[in-house]
Amino acid sequence: MKKTIIIALAAAALVSCAKEKLNPVPSNAVLDEQIFSSVETAKNALNSGMAYVAHYYNLTLDTISSELMGEDATLTSGAYGLPTYSWLEYAYTYSQTPSESPWQFGYANYIWPNAYKAIDVANNIIAHFEDAPEQPGLENLLGQAHALRGYFFLRLVRLFAPAYSLDADAAGIILRTTPAGLESEHLGRASVKNVYTQIINDLDYGRQNCSDADTKYFTPKACALLMARAYLDMNDYAKAKAKAEEAADNVFDGSNLMSQAEYQAGFHTANDEWLMYAASEESTSNYYASVPSFYYLAKSAVSADENGQASIDDLDYLETEEEEDFFEEPLYGYSTVRWTARFRNSFDDDDCRKLFPFYFDEADGWLTSKFRHRGGSLGVADFPIARIAEAYLIKAECELQPGGNTAAAQEVLNALQEARGAGTTEATEATIYQERRKELYGEGFVLADMKRLHLSLDRTQDPEHWSTLTTLPADSPRFMFPMPEVELLYNKALTKNDQNAYWKK
Questions:
Q1: Phi-psi region for residue 88, left (φ > 0), alpha (ψ -120 to 50) or beta?
Q2: Of 149, 148, 125, 127, whose CA–CA distance to 137 is shortest?
């Protein structure tokens, strides 16, 4: 297939996505008494809620935006032979807007309502079954619903509110815990503190009641790790450490991590280290809107020279059998996300996570093969929601805090580094943060880490960045996404003054 054909298909997919209404029929429109007549039939409602976990409005936009708002990732600008797209540019340039128009800058209007649809599914399940007589599967159903609600509250508060460690009493998000309807009470923004209290309560309920062994759903260990993530945001290091240990079965010797071969094969199929994942099959694929569509180009290029530069002309391949040798695997998706040379060079050569096979122009950045499609099918790729490696990093960070064990921090950090084939380092706050960036890059942690650690943005060290926004001070209000204007317009408990500071008019 020629590159031009693929680009045309991608453009068609983009136009189609752009024309979709942001607010389709509310999720509770199909959640009637028949669906909630039994636990067995209510599982369909649960599955509809779980589908939002993998939906690109949440998974792709949230995850990749969080990466592009940092320093390590950039977008191809279109100046080096490959086209770029409006997708995710708003995040990279910090030019997002609260309005629906122009659509390419208003992704808050996608993420916010879609997350609340998932929350509404959870609220309906909880409301219908909270006082139901005991029956097989009821506890797990309620556990899944609570965990689903807590999971999306956590994603939302990290995007749309200031860090807990900055101002726990600041306005957070809307804390709706009952089913939405025409007669529902209009709610204002709950405090960040109250939102995190609800998150912990919901995830803990899931931790105690989820019994599904399928990691496409919430499991006790997945809930424990999500709790550790939330406690880390709250600077509650003792509880974060305890939940990280629970998630990892208190094993931190590297034996419960994926192998180097599994890591280098590219993230596309769940393995034993993944405590929870967003599943994707042919029937549920987001195609061009999937996470690997934006990250993935090809595993390697035969045409790349010893410095990693490949010829962009080699993209015109697969015309003949001989041309298949130019690239091991074909171009799929948008493939617009790049990584800076400084970030790539921060990895040891033997580190299995150094998955940056080549670049087309040094000024455009390196491509990554960490995320790939499965079986040659566009967008078919599982994506980790919770991995044991994160538990290692949380434990190491917590052990450095007052009352912790610095020797344990060193041991845990080095176990992770050795498992990945990297050289060991001293355990400090700086080296643990650097290890988080290396281990979790592309998985959507950067923005939340910058906020909770009160880090500034500095892109001046990396010439690949073309955005005119190169620096931001720590705790900048621009690290928060804008509240969607439609929420402020129709929610009678809110006014324009409830908008996040940077976007107030």
A1: left
A2: 125
Work out the pLDDT band at 444, boundaries 50, 70, 90. Answer: very high
Report whether 37 contacts 361 (CB < 8 A).
no
| Nearest residue to 70 (alpha-carbon basis) of 294, 417, 339 | 339
Other CB atoms within 10 Å distance of the CB of residue 212:
16
pLDDT level of residue 25 (50, 70, 90 thresholds): very low
3-class state of residue 380 by DSSP: coil
Q: Where does residue 95 rank: exposed (0-12), middle (13-18), buried (19+ CB within 10 A)? A: middle
Distance between CA 73 and CA 457 in Å, rounded?
12
| DSSP class of 274 | E
Average pLDDT over residues 32-46: 85
Angle made by CA atoms 247, 249, 253, in degrees to the nearest 5: 110
Radius of gyration of the chain (CA): 22
Helix (H) or strand (E) holding 254: none
Q: Which two tokens stand for residue 305?
A: 């020279």
The least confident of 81-85, 171-175, 280-284 is 81-85
Provide the token pair at 28: 């509770």
* Cα(216)–Cα(211) distance, integer angstroms: 12
Res. 13: pLDDT tops 80: no
Of 264, 275, 257, nearest to 412 (Cα)? 257
* Alpha helical stretches, state H, 234-298: 237-247, 260-264, 291-295
Residue whose token pair is 């380092």:
425
Residue 387: phi, psi to the nearest 5? -125, 150
The model carries a pTM of 0.92
- For the purposes of burial, counting CB atoms within 10 Å of the CB of 35, is it exposed (0-12), middle (13-18) or buried (19 or more)? middle
SS3 content of the chain, % helix, strand, coil (to 5): 45, 5, 45
pLDDT higher for 194 or 84? 194
Where helices occur in 75-134 by DSSP H, the ranges are 89-92, 108-129
pLDDT at 18 over 50: no
366 vs 170: CA distance, rounded Å: 39
Q: What is the DSSP string of 45-114?
A: HHHHHHHHHH-TTTHHHHHHHHHHTSSSEEE--S-SSS---STTHHHHTT---SSSSSGGG-THHHHHHH
DSSP-derived pairing of the beta strands 457-458 and 471-472: antiparallel
